[in-house]
């Protein structure tokens, strides 16, 4: 299942880092720092194939985002749902899995592990570029 990968994190820098990495790999990625926007996208954007969400966010916590994405996955409309957090506890990981996360990542993120999980779920093709291309002037 190919399509757009939605990144949700209340830290705009994290959203940009992950979306830039995935785009450099040739994938279609979009992101938001507002979990309310993410809930709307999950409900209405038919082009989504994966959701990767932070757990600890203001207004709407990531567990609600996970549950909404999991419901869509159960309906066959998403390939995968993943959780990430910078303040991981074992209970958070268990709760994320119960809420529908197929993968759980602790920050700082290993972006190649996320790409691997997307490949396993079918949200990224196996032939996704192994090494990112760096834009001109980018470190």
How would you portray this structure in words?
The chain is an alpha/beta fold and 139 residues long. It has a single domain (4-121), classed as Response regulator (Rossmann fold, 3-Layer(aba) Sandwich), CATH 3.40.50.2300. It has 5 helices and 5 strands, in the order βαβαβαβαβα. The chain has helices spanning 12-24, 35-44, 62-74, 90-98, 111-121, and strands spanning 4-8, 29-32, 48-54, 80-85, 103-106. Strands 2-1-3-4-5 form a 5-stranded parallel sheet, with helices on both faces. Helix 3 (62-74) links the parallel strand 3 (48-54) and strand 4. Helix 2 runs parallel beside helix 3. It is globular and about 35 Å long. It starts with a strand and ends in an 18-residue tail after the last helix. 38% of the residues are buried.
Structural topology:
Blueprint lengths: L3 E5 L3 H13 L4 E4 L2 H10 L3 E7 L7 H13 L5 E6 L4 H9 L4 E4 L4 H11 L18
Parallel strand pairs: 1-2, 1-3, 3-4, 4-5
Helix pairs in contact: 2-3
Radius of gyration: 14 Å
The parts where pLDDT drops under 50 for at least 5 residues are 130-139
Instruction: Report how far the terminal alpha carbons are from each other.
Output: 32 Å
How many E strands? 5
CATH class: Alpha Beta
Estimate the helix proportion, in percent: 40-55%
CATH fold topology? Rossmann fold
What structural class do the secondary elements suggest?
Answer: alpha/beta
- What series of H and E elements makes up the topology? EHEHEHEHEH
Shape: globular
Biggest sheet, in brief?
5 strands, parallel
